[in-house]
Amino acid sequence: MSRYDGELSVDSVTDWVAMSILSLPRIRYYSKESMAQDFLLKSKPHKVKVIFFSQTGERATPFIRQAAKNYSAYATFAFVLWQEGESSLWWNMLGVESAPAIVFLKETGVKPVVHHGYVNSSLFVDIMEKNKYHVLPQLRSVTSKELGCDPRGFSRAGKDTKIWYCIVLVGRYSKELNEMRETMRRIQETLSNDRDLTAVDQDLPSAPALLALKQKRLTFTWLDGEAQKSYCFFYINSENSYETCGPMRDITDTAQLFIVRYDRNDTENVGKQPTSKFSELYNVETDPAAQLVAKYNGSNKIEQIVQWISEIIKDGDSKNLPSFKTRTPELVPEDADSTWSSWSEGTVSPSRGLIHRVKSFLNKVHDYSGDPRVGPFLLLAALISFGSVWFKRSQVAQSSGPDRSSQKSNEPERSNQQTREPDQSNQPNAKDATMRKRRTRPRNDLVPPSMTDVDPKDAYQAEFSDSDTG
């Protein structure tokens, strides 16, 4: 049983129910001063930042907290109290006109996505699904299969798709990587227009890439080469791979671009792998989809990159290219310590938690003190305790009685034995008498007397005369 002891207001009760009963996270409020330092800079770069603007300052509703918990791997959440004096700041910074509003902040250089007005549960989930990724999504352990860039998964077009492609930009966080990410976003925007391909468009150099993107057989993404160094070295296997993968070893940071062609043949009869605990030592299962990797070595011009992508897709769809199956390294989870902070998980500080426990204990004592069933229970417990003590003492008394009777029965037998052998028991040996004398005799008796200690029989005391003349 859990009891609420706080203020009886809608906001306080809702917050208590969401945290204590439903175990949903608490979303913090930020001011204009703390927004940049405590939220924007501390949020992880691979997550979308979601900011709610509230007119009343109330806590987040349960469905918003539930969505924040479900999308915690994709986004971080914050609340801001809307004030008219700060309206110009939020308009210039985020494009917010009034509250209530929801802002989705994505990567640097991308215009924020703003939704004005109230939302319900279904509408907010739909908005989150559309905006949970960056414009150029990051290839991560939780997004690889959704993006179609996992040889163990399937294409975004569906499980029936046999061939699909994934374009990956890889590098360490640097100026060069940011510039290439901007270039890839422009390429993606160029190819993702909504117009249908006509007969004239089929002859365009970019037609294969445009068609593959519309069919969801082509995905653009980027990879953190430092965090995913094993995955990066697996695909960037060259002399200058250390300029892209792993921790920084030189001043040079190079962002590289490659495309992966996946070929999945589900009709292939793959032999069943051994299932013993030692099987992985001698037999490693390969990925279901075969891979073919091509690296880009040209300039950073958009037209040239689009032409290169189109040529790769055209050859991959039309030609019978060789298939290579291997075991791709696992992507390392960016949120290996994916634990909510104390405020987001809904936990309280240690002092507050201790006070809450003490109050709960006192409330339970107060409740039990007025319960009429407590008295009979205490009386029954006292009787049981008294009975157990009496039973133990009676057992001890009964066990000591036979011992005393046996001792009394043995006493006549001992007296008979003593009367049968009176001489032997009453008369000590000569050896025992000698030992007793030695114990009682002083230590000086052991020393033999000297000639000056004993007076001779004919000895007498000589007297001296008082006169000295004679």
UniProtKB/TrEMBL annotation:
Which keywords annotate this record? Coiled coil
Protein origin, superkingdom: Eukaryota
UniProt-annotated stretches for the region Disordered? 398-470
Listed transmembrane segments? none
Record's keyword annotation contains Coiled coil: yes
From start to end residue, where is composition biased (Polar residues)? 398-429
Coiled-coil regions, chain positions: 170-197
Native organism is Solanum stoloniferum
* This protein's name: DNAJ heat shock N-terminal domain-containing protein
